[in-house]
Automatic annotation (TrEMBL):
GO molecular function: metal ion binding; N-acetylglucosamine-6-phosphate deacetylase activity
Source species: Naumannella halotolerans
Top-level taxon of origin: Bacteria
Keyword vocabulary terms for this entry: Carbohydrate metabolism, Hydrolase, Metal-binding
The protein, known as: N-acetylglucosamine-6-phosphate deacetylase
Short name of one Pfam family: Amidohydro_1
Cofactor note: Binds 1 divalent metal cation per subunit.
Basic and acidic residues: compositionally biased ranges: 1-21
Length: 409
C-alpha cells in the first residue's frame, strides 16, 4: 500500500505492534487480501495494552483475516464503533440470568448468553463450595459443555479448601483441607479440562497440593485465606500464580500483618483478580493495584445467578442471598455474596477510577488469557485468530459483540 496515503495493513503479530514513530505497522499484506470480507469493522483499535488509533478489522469465515488503517477492502457488511477491542475473558464467574453454573447445562447456556451480550466471549465457569460428590458431578457437566463450546475455557473450583474465618459466602459446614483423595477425585473428574482452584495456603496439606496441582497444569489461586505474608511467599514458591479477588476474603494491607496480597504484588509471576464494581473494592484501591502490578491485574465479575435479574431473594450454593440495588449479600451474615457485574461495567468502573482505557481493556482480555496460558489464542486482535470482538461506544457501553465472526443479538 502507498505509505504516503495513510493506508496501512497488518498481518500476524504486526496487529499489535504498530510503530510508535510513524503510527503505522511495518507488515506484509494479510493472507487472502484479494477476497471479499464477510464483515468490516472500523473503530479505535485497542489491543495488547496499546491504543492503535483509528483502524479497520476484516472478518471472513469466522476469522480475523485483515487489519489495517485508511482505505479498506470491500465487505458484505460494515460496522463502525467508537472503540474496537478483543472479546472479554472472565476468569471468575458463577452465573447470570437466573442460573448458576452449579445448576446444570440449561443454566450454563443461559448465563453464558447473558455475559456474551455484555462482551464476554470466553469464560472459566466457577463453582462454589459444595459436597465433593456434587462438585465432581458438576465438573463432569462443565467438561461436557466445554467439549461442545470451546469458549467455555474450563472450570474454577472456588472451594471447599478455604479458610473458615475468611470464607465469605461459602457454607462453613462444607469447608475442608485439600486432602490427597479430595484433590485426586477432582483431578480425575476434570480429566483434560482446564482447571483452576482457589485455596487457602495455611490449611493442612495446602503446600503439597499447590505443588502437585501446579505441576499438573492447574492454575492455583490463593484466596479466602487468613494466611500471613510469609505463608503467601511460600505458596507462590510452591506454584501459586493468582490471587482470587484481591482485598476480598483475605487480610487487608495491615502494616504489621499484611497477609498474602503484598507477597503477590512483590512477585512478577503472580497475577491478581479484582472485582471492579464500585462495591467490593474502593476505586482508589483498584487504581492502586494497576499502579503496583502493571500488566498483572485481571478484571473479573464473580457474578452470580441474580446478574441481569431483579433485586430479591436468591441462592448461592445452598446459602440464602438477598440482592438490594444490585448488590448480593448473605441473608444470615450480611457478607457480600458475589456480584451482579459484567465485564463491560468492570472496564467502565476501572476507567472511572483513573485506569487508562487501554490498560482496563487489557485487564479484561490479554491478562486473563495469559493467566490461563491462552495468550496465543485469546485476548488480542490478531490476523489468523477467531473473530471474537467487542465494539464500545463513546461511553464505553457495548454496542456490538462479534463471536466466532457472527454478530450477537
Amino acid at each position: 500500500m502507498n505509505s504516503d496515503s495513510g493506508d496501512r495493513e497488518l498481518s500476524g503479530e504486526g496487529a499489535a505492534r504498530r510503530s510508535v514513530e510513524d503510527g503505522a505497522p511495518a507488515a506484509a499484506p494479510a493472507t487472502g487480501s484479494e477476497s471479499r470480507l464477510d464483515l468490516l469493522i472500523r473503530g479505535n483499535l485497542i489491543t495488547d495494552g496499546t491504543d492503535l488509533g483509528p483502524s479497520w478489522v476484516g472478518v471472513a469465515d469466522g476469522m480475523i483475516t485483515r487489519i489495517g488503517t485508511g482505505s479498506a477492502p470491500p465487505a458484505t457488511a460494515t460496522m463502525e464503533v467508537a472503540h474496537l477491542v478483543p472479546g472479554f475473558v472472565d476468569l471468575h464467574c458463577h452465573g447470570a440470568a437466573g442460573g448458576a453454573y452449579d445448576d446444570g447445562l440449561e443454566a450454563i447456556i443461559a448465563a453464558r448468553a447473558h455475559h456474551l451480550r455484555h462482551g464476554t466471549t470466553a469464560s472459566m465457569l466457577s463453582l462454589v463450595t459444595a459436597r465433593p460428590a456434587d462438585l465432581i458431578r458438576r465438573i463432569a457437566v462443565i467438561r461436557a459443555a466445554a467439549a461442545a463450546d470451546p469458549q467455555i475455557l474450563g472450570v474454577h473450583l472456588e472451594g471447599p479448601c478455604l479458610s473458615h474465618d475468611k470464607r465469605g459466602a461459602h457454607d462453613p459446614t462444607l469447608l475442608r483441607p485439600p486432602e490427597p483423595e479430595l484433590i485426586t477425585g477432582f483431578s480425575n473428574a476434570a480429566g483434560d479440562l482446564r482447571t483452576m482452584i482457589t485455596l487457602a495456603p495455611e490449611l493442612d496439606g495446602a503446600m503439597t497440593a499447590i505443588r502437585t496441582l501446579s505441576e499438573h497444569g492447574w492454575v492455583v489461586a490463593l484466596g479466602h485465606t487468613d494466611a500471613s505474608y510469609e505463608t503467601g511467599v511460600r505458596a507462590i514458591a510452591a506454584g501459586a500464580r493468582l490471587i482470587t479477588h484481591a482485598f476480598n476474603g483475605m487480610r487487608g494491607l495491615d502494616h504489621r500483618s499484611p497477609g498474602i496480597l503484598p507477597a503477590a504484588l512483590d512477585d512478577p509471576r503472580v497475577n491478581v483478580e479484582v472485582i471492579a464494581d464500585g462495591e467490593h473494592v474502593h476505586p482508589r484501591m483498584v487504581r492502586f493495584l494497576f499502579d503496583t502490578a502493571p500488566g498483572r491485574v485481571a478484571l473479573i465479575t464473580d457474578a452470580m445467578a441474580a446478574t441481569g435479574q431483579p433485586d430479591g431473594r436468591w441462592k448461592l450454593g445452598d446459602l440464602g442471598v438477598v440482592v438490594t440495588d444490585g448488590l448480593p449479600r448473605l441473608v444470615d451474615t450480611g457478607s457480600i455474596a458475589g456480584s451482579t457485574l459484567t465485564q463491560d461495567k468492570a472496564i467502565r468502573v476501572a476507567v472511572a477510577a483513573g485506569v487508562p482505557l487501554r490498560l482496563a481493556v487489557a485487564a479484561a482480555t490479554g491478562v486473563p488469557a495469559g493467566v490461563l496460558g491462552l495468550a496465543d489464542t485469546h485476548g488480542a486482535v490478531r490476523v489468523g485468530r477467531r473473530a471474537d470482538l467487542v465494539g464500545l461506544d463513546a461511553d464505553l457501553q457495548v454496542c456490538a459483540v462479534i463471536a466466532d465472526g457472527v454478530r450477537v443479538g
